[in-house]
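Milestone 3.1: sequence recovery, worked example.
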């Protein structure tokens, strides 16, 4: 029997892609609510009681309201996968990054409530957490994170501005240093010192680069970039959605990397670009902000939750 899934917010960017990814599957049945009853709590409770998992593709406050509604249902409520940022560090929720640590995929598989990671956070945590766990990066290290994303991650207003050609070609934003992904970055990277995060958006629809510059002299016993690369490779292994691109494979890239190479996939590539003579390195994550950064990760988590 096919698992029943309700996407609350299926008309948004993330919801539409999840729906497209699941629509042709025989092992999942997508259930929708009559648009006229979308704000009818009794009708929504009836629908929710009939499904196995509710996927929330909603603004944060709406996601909190949806969870509160399910709280009222008690044991009749379905399991929840929240794609908003409302519950990523909330007690009782499992963080939906299966590659985070040993056993994380199992925790997702058995959880009643899973919070899908943010796109920037996915890239940053993927680079930082293995180094903190390996005691190469001190938890109080003054980390700086730079990132650029395609405009599709900015919501309907940003998408409309870029596609109507009224937005700039490139801009830094969130310069108040209060980006909403920072809480999960600090928590799941196990950083004690809050990182400085400078995101940006450019005139391409999707794709992302997250980069972290490092002075090797300030790390714990690191003598060269290869040791950082080995720590990442040991954490992620081979054959999964997260791969470490070895430095020996970088010569043909001529010192450049573009953000769109993994679009429409759930893959993420990690790189360590080091100049050992200068005692400097840059860690880079490349991913699709709509793939491993959003909808692709949601489908990966949904498969774990449903045992598919």
């Amino acid at each position: 029997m096919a698992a029943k899934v309700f996407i609350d917010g299926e008309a948004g960017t993330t919801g539409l892609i999840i729906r497209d990814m699941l629509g042709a599957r025989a092992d999942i049945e997508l259930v929708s609510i009559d648009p006229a009853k979308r704000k009818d709590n009794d009708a929504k409770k009836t629908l929710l009681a009939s499904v196995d998992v509710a996927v929330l593709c909603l603004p944060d406050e709406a996601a909190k309201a949806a969870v509160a509604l399910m709280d009222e249902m008690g044991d009749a409520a379905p399991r929840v996968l929240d794609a908003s940022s409302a519950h990523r560090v909330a007690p009782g929720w499992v963080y939906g990054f299966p590659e985070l640590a040993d056993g994380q995929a199992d925790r997702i598989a058995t959880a009643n409530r899973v919070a899908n990671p943010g796109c920037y956070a996915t890239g940053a945590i993927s680079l930082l957490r293995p180094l903190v766990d390996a005691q190469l990066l001190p938890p109080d290290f003054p980390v700086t994170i730079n990132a650029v994303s395609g405009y599709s991650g900015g919501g309907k207003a940003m998408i409309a501005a870029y596609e109507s050609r009224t937005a700039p070609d490139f801009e830094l934003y969130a310069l108040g240093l209060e980006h909403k992904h920072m809480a999960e970055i600090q928590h799941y990277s196990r950083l004690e010192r809050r990182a400085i995060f400078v995101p940006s958006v450019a005139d391409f629809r999707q794709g992302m680069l997250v980069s972290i510059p490092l002075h090797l002299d300030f790390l714990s016993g690191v003598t060269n970039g290869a040791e950082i690369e080995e720590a990442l490779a040991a954490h992620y292994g081979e054959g999964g959605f997260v791969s470490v691109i070895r430095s020996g494979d970088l010569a043909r890239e001529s010192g450049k990397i573009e953000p769109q190479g993994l679009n429409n996939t759930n893959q993420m590539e990690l790189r360590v670009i080091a100049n050992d003579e200068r005692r400097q390195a840059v860690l880079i994550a490349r991913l699709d902000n709509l793939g491993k950064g959003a909808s692709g990760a949601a489908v990966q988590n949904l498969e774990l939750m449903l045992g598919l």
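Residues 96 and 301 are 6 Å apart (CA to CA). The chain has a mean pLDDT of 94.
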